[in-house]
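Morning!

As promised:
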Amino acid sequence: MANIPATAAGIADAVQSKEVSATEVVEHHLNVIAQRDGDINAFNLVTSEHARAAALRIDNAIASGAAVGPLAGVPIAIKDNMCTRGIPTTCSSHILEGWKPPYDATVITTLGAAGAVMVGKTNLDEFAMGSSTENSAFGPTRNPLDTSRVPGGSSGGSAAAVAAGLAPVSLGSDTGGSIRQPAALCGVVGVKPTYGRVSRYGLVAFASSLDQIGPFATTVDDAALITEVIAGHDPKDSTSIPQPVPSLRAAAREGVQGMRIGRVTDLPEGAEPEVAARLNEAFAALESVGARIVDVTLPSLSYALTAYYLIAPAEASSNLARYDGVRYGMRTSAADTNAMYGATRAAGFGDEVKRRIMLGTYALSAGYYDAYYGKALKVRRLISDDFDRAYAQADVVLMPTSPMVAFPFGDKVDDPMSMYLCDIYTIPTNLAGHPAMSVPFGTGAHGLPVGVQVLAPALGEVAMFRVGGALEAAGAAR
Amino acid sequence: MTFPISAEDVAKVARLARLDIADSDITHFTEQLAKVMDHFRDVDALDLSAVQPMTQPYPLVNVLRADEEQPCLDRDEVLAAAPAAEDGRFRVPPIIGLVE
């Protein structure tokens, strides 16, 4: 079989120049999945027939001289919380078992039009609630770099699929760090675009004011390529931003000469020493290629986690009210409808989802709304204002992505607060609605990968990718 | 002002959220939720009287489209994905007439 390039950009070029066929590329990846996914469990479903048919269409188009898209023949794995028409979409929850959506998410339509080939739906923490993928109803995903450890979460399946070479690129969703944290733990690039940059139409809602779709990739260039394809205004998503998408691949090659990189002097503590050391080395590396380090403060950041764990569950409790045994998935029979609701939801949801629904219902309930939810929304404003002040001085801000490297299974799964602390550095970005990306930068404890996080102001993807590209180059030169 | 969450609170929100939670599990959930709520003390100590709440990243404005007919989801496809359907509608158990 022909040599299959490792990157999405390489595959697209090779397929368009007929060095390899889309069919060869997809068969190669289906083989790797068959060999390796038994150990990793990245996929809830491998869509072999769908993928072979899509690849054949690409090959036929190329043979007939028809124009093909920028991702022609590129296999992509999709987090199983994005709707795919006629193909099961479970959110790794029993409550949606067997449900086949009657429509495609906008990202699925867009990727298909660009020539990408979906190879499967990836595992996640149930309804994207978790930081380890242990909350999946279909068993955990294992970290390909050390299968005794978690891949992070909630998009653990998408991160592991790319880290293990099961697909060159994948999509995840990020509500509080669910793309960036697993990217860091699996040693790949993960991007959360600005809230509204990528359509959420067809993304099963967890917390609607925080959710955002973004890519995983092995290179910053591939992450830029996928972001460029999926970003853009969508009339079907009323929070979609009507702004043109700049060239992010060009930005990633531009360098950081003259850029101001923010170092947070009052960053909440908790990062492992090796993680803190890699962050310091990242600042030094950027300085050595022409950037300037400026100190900034984000005094409200220490309240972000608390605010998030009221806001996100509040929105989730409302969004997940729709799973009631009437319209989707499973039903537990009972004598009347009210009893059927309670029995279906009790049988269909896992413990973490139940905890968050109850937390959210509590925070929104009569007598507690102002005391909890109302205050959390005000803290959200403080955090957003802090970022505005920081970005008056700095073009981007650098932070760790995750305080720790990949941890062993069972370490945190029964202690919600310790699991929630995994997201201490990623949550503030979601509250503000800003973009951020995680770029692998050296290793930490046990030789496991560390990610450095690049945060930018709303619609600041160009600055973010400039720094991401420079970090990748510096990391490769280490 | 924060309120320590009690087993009665948890049982009540479970009912409001239509989740049948066994009495034996209420204790476990109460302990876990109380730990999370405990962190709210830090936020509670802040003076937020002058701060405007932020419900989402961008100011909400009405987003409207032209009032023109557009294709919608296929009814049969939607009903095929439901647990029970009959005569083009979702089928559910009795809603009235039965009292707990």
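The longest helix of chain A spans residues 370-393.

Hope this helps with the figure draft.
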